[in-house]
Write a structure and sequence with these properties.
single chain, about 375 residues, Carbamate kinase, Archaeosine Trna-guanine Transglycosylase, Chain: A, domain 4, 15 helices, 15 strands, about 40% helix, about 20% strand, binds adenosine-5'-diphosphate, binds ligand VHF, transferase, nucleotide-binding
C-alpha cells in the first residue's frame, strides 16, 4: 500500500517549512533551497509534476530588516513578509535556473479559494503553468492577508492547494522525521509513527502545537492538513527535509517519514470545495428525521427538519448542519438567508407557502449543494 501510494503519485504538492529554508540567525538559507531544487528536479525527471508551497518569507524578512525578535504586530509581520518574499523567490529563481527549470510565484489568500470563480481561475492558471513545465512556488499573500481572509498557516494552504490542483499526494517537509508519539524536542524517548492508517483523536493529541522559532503551528497543523486531504482520498507524507536525498528515495519506495493513509474516496471538485475550503457562516440544528434523510437517504434539506438557526447569513452562504448532539455532520449552501429560515423552520412546504407566499425553492439546501462529512 505504502509503496504503491508513493511510487505511483504523479502530481505532488511539496510543502517546505520555514524551519527548512530559513533560520533565526542566518535568515534565508539558499544552500537548502539549492539542495531541495536538485531533489525536486530529480522527481521531475522521473515524470512527476511538482508544485511547491514554500514558507520562509517572514523569517527572511526579519533578518533582512535587522529585527531582533519575531514580530508580534501584524503590520511589522506583513512588512517582513513583503521584504522576505522577494528574497525567497529570488533564491528559488536562481536555484532552479541552474537546472534549466522555470519557476512562477503564486501568492494566495483564503478569499482566492473561497470564491468559486477565483478558485477556478487559480486552478486554470496552475494547470497552464504545469502544462508549460513550470514549478509553481506558492505562499500565502501575507502582506495583504488580515485574519478574516487568511489561511493562517502553510500546512493548511498546502492542503488547499492539493485540492486546487487535484494532487495525488501531499508531502510536508519539515525539520523533524515525521509524527512522533510526543514532541521529541520535549520528550527524547518519543518514537516515530511511520504509518497512520486513521487520524483518531489520540493521533491529533499527540501532535503538539509547539514550533521552532521559524515555524507556525507545529505538528498540529500538519496532522490537520493530512486529515483534510485524507478525507477526500489523498495521502500525506511528513518527511525530514534536512536529510539530503531522503525525498527522492522515499518517493521511490524507500523507508522514512510518517505516511498518513487517505480515508475517503475522491469527491467531485465542487463538493470538495464546499466541504473543505468554505468556512461555515452559520449553523442549522436538525431533528432526527432530517439527519437520517440527509445522512442515509441522500435527500435535500427541507424546512420541516430544522429545529434552530444560529448565526447570520445570506442565501448562497455555506452553513454547518448539526445533529441533535450538536455535532457537525454535513455542510451545504443554503437557498435562503438566516432570517427567512428562522421563519420557515419546522414548517412543511405547504405551510411555508401559506405563511410566506410562493418561494423560488422548496429545499433549504439542495442535495447537489450538500456534503456529508
Ligand atoms: N508529536 C510530534 N512529533 C513531531 N514533532 C512535533 C510533535 N509535536 C510538536 N512537534 C514540533 O513540530 C515542529 C515542526 O513544526 P514547525 O516548527 O511549525 O515546522 P515547519 O516550519 O516545518 O512548519 C517540530 O520541530 C517539533 O518540535
Ligand atoms: N507565509 C509564512 C509562513 C507561515 C507558515 O505556516 O510557516 P511554516 O509553519 O514554517 O510553514 C512565511 O512565508 O513566512
Amino acid at each position: 500500500m505504502r509503496d504503491e501510494i508513493l511510487t505511483s503519485a504523479k502530481r505532488i504538492v511539496v510543502k517546505i517549512g520555514s524551519s527548512l529554508v530559513s533560520s533565526k540567525d542566518a535568515g534565508l538559507r539558499p544552500d537548502r533551497i539549492d539542495r531541495l531544487a536538485d531533489e525536486i528536479s530529480m522527481l521531475r525527471t522521473d515524470g512527476r509534476e511538482v508544485l511547491l508551497v514554500s514558507s520562509g518569507a517572514i523569517v527572511s524578512g526579519i533578518k533582512k530588516l535587522g529585527l531582533k525578535e519575531y514580530p508580534k504586530s501584524l503590520p511589522v509581520k506583513q512588512a517582513a513578509a513583503a521584504v522576505g518574499q522577494s528574497r525567497l523567490m529570488w533564491a528559488y529563481e536562481k536555484s532552479f535556473e541552474r537546472l534549466g527549470v522555470k519557476v512562477a510565484q503564486i501568492l494566495l489568500t483564503h478569499q482566492d479559494l473561497a470564491d468559486r470563480r477565483r478558485f477556478l481561475n487559480a486552478r486554470h492558471t496552475l494547470a497552464a503553468l504545469i502544462g508549460f513545465g513550470v514549478v509553481p512556488v506558492i505562499n500565502e499573500n501575507d502582506t495583504v492577508a488580515v485574519d478574516e481572509i487568511r489561511v493562517g498557516d502553510n500546512d493548511s494552504l498546502a492542503a488547499d492547494v492539493a485540492h486546487l490542483v487535484d494532487a495525488d499526494l501531499l508531502v510536508i517537509l519539515s525539520d523533524i522525521d515525521g509524527l512522533f508519539t510526543q514532541d521529541p524536542r520535549k520528550n527524547p524517548s518519543a518514537t516515530l509513527i511511520p504509518l497512520v492508517s486513521e487520524i483518531t483523536e489520540e493521533i491529533e493529541q499527540r501532535a503538539g502545537v509547539s514550533t521552532t522559532f521559524e515555524g507556525t503551528g507545529g505538528m498540529a497543523t500538519k496532522v490537520r492538513a493530512a486529515k483534510k486531504v485524507g478525507e477526500y482520498g489523498v495521502a500525506t507524507l511528513i518527511l525530514n527535509g534536512q536529510q539530503a536525498g531522503l525525498l527522492p528515495t522515499v518517493l521511490a519506495g524507500g523507508d522514512g517519514g510518517s505516511l498518513f493513509l487517505p480515508k475517503g474516496r475522491r469527491m467531485t471538485s465542487r463538493k470538495l470545495w464546499i466541504a473543505f475550503t468554505l468556512r461555515p457562516q452559520g449553523q442549522l440544528l436538525l431533528d432526527a428525521g432530517a439527519v437520517v434523510a440527509l445522512a442515509e437517504r441522500g435527500k435535500s434539506l427541507l424546512a420541516s427538519g430544522i429545529i434552530d438557526v444560529k448565526g447570520t447569513f445570506e442565501a448562497g452562504d455555506p452553513v454547518s448542519c448539526l445533529n441533535q448532539d450538536g455535532k457537525e455532520f454535513a455542510k451545504g449552501l443554503v437557498n435562503f438567508s438566516s432570517d427567512v429560515i428562522a421563519r420557515m423552520k419546522g414548517l412543511k412546504t405547504v405551510d411555508v407557502q401559506q405563511r410566506l407566499g410562493p418561494q423560488e425553492y422548496d429545499e433549504i439546501i439542495h442535495r447537489d449543494n450538500l456534503v456529508l462529512l
